[in-house]
Prior knowledge:
Number of strands of chain A: 11
Number of helices of chain B: 0
Largest sheet of chain A: 7 strands, mixed
Distance between the termini of chain B: 37 Å
Largest sheet of chain B: 7 strands, mixed
Shape of chain B: globular
Structural class of chain B: mainly beta
Structural class of chain A: mainly beta
Helix content of chain A: under 10%
Order of helices and strands of chain B: EEEEEEEEEEE
Largest interface: A-B, 23 and 26 residues
Number of strands of chain B: 11
Oligomer: heterodimer
Shape of chain A: globular
Mean pLDDT of chain A: 97
Number of helices of chain A: 0
Order of helices and strands of chain A: EEEEEEEEEEE
Radius of gyration of chain A: 13 Å
Strand content of chain A: over 45%
Amino acid sequence: QVQLVESGGGEVQPGRSLRLSCAASGFTFSFYGMHWVRQAPGKGLEWVALISYDGNTKYYEDSVKGRITISRDNSKNTLYLQMSSLRPDDTAVYYCAKGVAPRVIHDAFGVWGQGTMVTVSP
Amino acid sequence: QLVLTQSPSVSASLGASVKLTCTLSSGHSSYAIAWHRQQPEKGPRYLMKLNSDGTYINGDGIPDRFSGSSSGAERYLTISSLQSDDEADYYCQSWVTGLHVFGSGTRVTVL
């Protein structure tokens, strides 16, 4: 079945870097746009970034621009989120999500991973 | 600027129906949205994509107790035959070029 499994979270100090991964299975990964969404403790969902099915189009939420890079390796069915200059307010569970329709850049999020926790603390 | 507005909470009895509302900001009344459910201590789950004309498609495995409808800038999620595991936070989501947004969520309590 369709599955997304995030990894790479952990506790890091402010200013450091971290790379998250999202392993996809059960569907043709290279056909779908992918997203990262985060949720701070006790808060709602916040969209972070998206990448088109072919990797050629990327968009970011304003507060992470310049600090976060989304990428994908379609040969490995894996999505990445490279985070640098981390701040305490980046502390959140990070989810990857798959678009509903193939080859559509902007769409509903049809499948979610289980999330990986990132804690930024001195 | 695309903004989605949801009521903070709603409660209903076991077996009853509940209707949640997501309101699109001015100028965005023709936009589609999606509904997602997040049970306590779990990740979100996609429920449906809902169009401005009221047509919707439920996600895989989502029972037809979950239905959608639209009126102007308002998008609705109706949950029928409320069950205990429907107690959760429900988020609406929409998008414009270069940006995706969520509503603040509605917490459903099953009495």
